[in-house]
Amino acid sequence: MSFAVRNLACQRAEQLVFENVSFSLASGEAIWVRGRNGAGKSSLLRICARLLSPLAGEITWNDEDIFKDSETYVGSYHYLGHQEALKYAMTVRENIGFWSMFHGTEDVVSALEQFDLQKLADTPTGLLSQGQKKRTNLARLVASSAKLWILDEPLSALDKHYIALFKERLMRHLAAGGMALFATHQDLELEQVKLLDLDDGAL
What we know:
Number of helices: 6
CATH topology of the largest domain: Rossmann fold
């Protein structure tokens, strides 16, 4: 598997956000996107998730353009953004099951266990705390078979225990040949993570 970004540029409200951004990911690799506020971290992740169109450049998944030949790519990535993307009337279990269907249903019960959500499984997500909602979102990742995780601030609202738990799950994902592209203000202290500084536009 391969994911490559070449000479990417982004424009927002007729203002250039970034340009000439290039990087690549192979199985077992992760990239931490950094940069000042307004550097375009979230915009970059949204482009990689096909939620925004780039001003210029190319993104490929296994050498196929993700905007032109998207069929194989759509089921290969899982995006978690700032917004929760949870259905509040549905329970925790139902939310995880709903999202996992888009990426090849895996073991929802195991996903609940991995983020300590068993006792909340049948609780409507609208009644959860912010930290519990974040854990529900993260459980969506391990309940799917998506190879590429695209994560915007995955650690927000988590305490030290669950940050460590997420780090362990991320390491397990990479060890199984997965990939990750994420932006966070907290250092996960992972040796194998490459850094992409949008202030420079390159690794």
